[in-house]
Amino acid sequence: MNQESVYPQCWDNQHIYPGLDSLELEADLALARRRLGELADFMGELTTACEEPGARLTFLRKVRQRAQGIRNIGWNIAVLAASAASQNAQDPLAKTQASRARALNADLFKTLAPMEQLLLTLPDADFDALMADALLGEEAFRLRHERRLADQRLPVAAEQLVIGLGSDGLHAWGNLYSELAGRLRLRVEGRELGLAQASNLLSSGDRALRQQAQSAISHAWEGEQETVAAILNAINGWRLELARQRGAQSGRPLDALSLSCHQNRIERVTLDAMMSASYERRELGQRALGVMGRRLGIKRMSVADLAAPAVARPGQGIPFAQAIDWIAEAFASFDPEMGDFARMMAERGWIDAAPSPHRQSGAYCTKFADPVEPRVFLTYEGSMRNLVTLAHELGHAWHNWLLRDLPMSQRAYPMTLAETASIFAETLVRSALFERAEEGDREAIAWMEADSAATFLLNIPARFDFEQALVRERAQGYVGSVRLKALMDDAWGRWYEQSLEEYFPLFWAAKGHFAIPGLGFYNYPYLFGYLFSLGVYGQLMARKGAGETGVAQAYRALLRDTGRMSAEALVTKHLGLDIRTSAFWQQSLERVEEAVNRFADLSQWHAESATDVTRSS
């Protein structure tokens, strides 16, 4: 196959900035710094200006208007630098410009800290009066949500210190992990590979190759385990100490998981209901692994088999252009504009997916602030798993595109709701592929659904359990690599039980999610998004099947509210359901059970067909 037919081009960001070393970027950065200095001088008048309500409103409006342009510049440079680092984790200019963008954003937030303190601590009547203003009211939901933790705020000077130290303190640890992952070199079958390329080999149909890749990945992280242990201890130690300081300030200590729920805009009871329902049905994920193993001729799946593809008929990889066509057609079957959007992303060079030596592993969607444009990153090598990952990230991109005309604060949705659009997109694509596939290919589609069941009902909860244990033990002192491996084994044992031949004790080092500094408990939102999106998908498709019009528009309306409502309020408004009860999650789990049953039936059919052929011959 011609490589050019498989791989897309790299990102085209020329209209944002010609490059990280461009004169245009330097000019904008200098402009932002100059405007930030002027804003800092202006903020010196805050106390005097806020003595009278009318003057306070005028002053705060001016601050908001001045700050937005500065933030857009810092945001755009940060995204451009992070994008360059994803393509090449060893790019020194990407690190430099990312550092300068972080410093600009940190200085902006430090400058705005007195205003934030004012807005979060004003009496309700005064606050409500300010939020009645069209401009200031754009942030009404965010501010009302943050006012719930107003008692946790430190004095302004201390908050400014936390922001300032975070850039080269807390966030530096996450940057170190990304740099470490980007420079790891592995040898598989005599070839030197980057981590992303080696990770893609885990999706190979050749079990021996998968085992070599897994062994190489484990060996690479074994050599870096003490560094990663230091990173995880530093990040969690920072969070715990900050929480202690805030708790001492308020007299109301807030544990790490409650803070995570607040950041994800869900109630703790909602999380507990979801996790409890999932644990009760963990056998669905275990059963999926069992069927996958039998189909592969394996007594029990190993870690190297968790990303194995379906047993497929011989064929070539899926060219990138074909993947875009299939995704666009699947999207269009639900919403024609969504299909057009997928094609536009490829045509405009907003997807970067070509393998490269120093490329970071994983996939993500990001966005620029001005113009508001999404970008997708992944490493595409033609597998069905790559195609579904591409659909997942394009779902995120569609979500961002639908919000592009909203104020920035209303475009910032929590992770719990972020995964709704991505997994909804995956489900659309898998369903469409299943319908169009020949009988012999349907098992591969059902395989992906079973794979999702195993990932979301076993792997994601195991990550959550591990992180809970890490936080508990870190509160007592440093948690070394030996103990981290034991905690990971315990977490996998609780969820996988006997469904795997062995566990992956170094998963805490290999999975970058644990080293993301800005948000603790990064993983349970994926389970939330998986089950929630299945619920949304089921409801909307039932309405569409009943001939109801405006279903695509109803979905768009739900997504547009994700940055300005809690998860509970969003579901009540758009679906009329209560996610704080186990019943909501059980309905979604019933859909998972249907998918696992379908996979088991297809696998049994294929096994019997193969036996019949053998007998005939």
UniProtKB/TrEMBL annotation:
GO biological process terms, semicolon-separated: proteolysis
Boundaries of every Peptidase M3A/M3B catalytic domain copy: 340-588
InterPro entries the UniProt entry points to: M3B_PepF_2, OligopepF_N_dom, OligoPept_F_C, Pept_M3A_M3B_dom, Peptidase_M32_Taq
Textual note on the cofactor: Binds 1 zinc ion.
Any Pfam family matching the protein: Peptidase_M3_N
Keyword Chloroplast: no
Occurrences of domain Oligopeptidase F N-terminal (ranges): 119-185
Name this polypeptide is given: Oligoendopeptidase F
Organism (species): Aeromonas molluscorum 848
